[in-house]
Amino acid sequence: MRPDSRTTIRPVGRGFPRGRGAGLAFLWFLLVGAVGCADDPPDPPTAEFELVPSPEPAPEYPDARLGIALPEEGERFSEGEAVEVHLTLSGFEVGVATPEGEERGLARAGDGQHVHLILNNERYQAIYDVDGPVRFTGLPPGNHLLRAFPGTDWHESVKTPGAFALRTFHVGEGEREPVVQPDEPLLTYSRPVGEYAGADADSILVDFYLSGVRLSPEGYRVRLSIEGMGEALITEWTPHVLVGLPEGEHTLALELLDPDGMPVSGEFNRTERTITVRAGGGG
Length: 283
Prior knowledge:
Number of strands: 18
CATH topology: Immunoglobulin-like
Largest sheet: 5 strands, antiparallel
CATH superfamily: Immunoglobulins
Number of helices: 1
Shape: globular
Helix content: under 10%
CATH class: Mainly Beta
Strand order of the largest sheet: 1-2-16-13-11
């Protein structure tokens, strides 16, 4: 997909009901419509907006390397025990502004660059200090997954090989099983999240992390769905922006599809988030 291309999200059609009774109702609908259509006002236009590849090239951090030192892969913790996560990071600085960030026109983190740390499929935590541990408490028994990658101050993921970390750990005495296999296709949702207001609502970043798979028009793709408004396909692993999203709450889903257009198995390969868009107020 070229940087100047546009993808308009298609409205979701409701279709017609089925069955004999529904067929009679449909014929009645046609008769009434034929008589009254000249006087009836037209249907209101369906809300449309665009999913646009980011017009600015992504910053490159060829030396960025991120790792999870602790917990160890497959480590077991007792129920009620706190889990401390220790990250290692090189080739990327957290807590500083990303150069040329103001030119993006996107919501930015006031504290600068950071690491996106995700437990299971919860919303990510922004980590601005990788020298100290991140503690998780009160985790339920079972298998748990950690994912992490660096992000710019406008929350775009750094896609350098070696900048993504994956770790499975376990709580309690149940079976220890890997949550995902290291080489299997995996989609990690990143943005959008939270609330967008004022200028931040004009262009909203859509970004995710991919591992074990590549996107192409004829191969694997990512489907963005917005409840009640439509969907679009993403065929290139680059950041995109939503333009013209109306005010209100919106439930979005990102889903990984195989070359046949079918959802890829795995509990993390489809993620939903609800965001709020407001015309005014703080970002």
